[in-house]
Amino acid sequence: MFMRKLVTLLILVCCLASCGQTIPNNDQTGKTNLIPVDTSVIAILPFDTTQTWIFKGCKQGNLSAADFETIDSLLMQCVDNYNKGQELIYKEKRLVNNYLLDLKTQKRQYIAVVNDKGEREVWVNCFCRTRGRNWKKQMIMVEDGGACYFNLKINLTNKKYDELMVNGIG
Description:
alpha+beta; single chain; 26% helix; 26% strand
């Protein structure tokens, strides 16, 4: 009886310990590193080759700690540039701007790939509402929704962002 309780306790402790905010990453040397990721905000989804509208002719990629820093930097740069453009448009038309992107309210999904040129890319999907879906396992895609939903591609090799798509207002 004591042994059964001890085994149960050990299993419980192991489960609780594995709930930290790090994910394993295999770098090019084959070593496994722990990457600090805020899993309350970021989910890493696997690449689905049937979703050719995101990436075509690619294979699954990995992300390193440095990649997360690059993604954050380029994502902030993209959002700042987009918001500056929106502010100019709305100021010129004398409209109230409720179409600015706000990263503080967003959760994110990342899909990392290696493209056919050998370049490392990541698709970043940002959203402020999940509509009851498990966003850590299921891609969040909606029609409309405005600035609550947007996505872009980041080329980690070239350190550039591209293809920003902000949902329209329904």
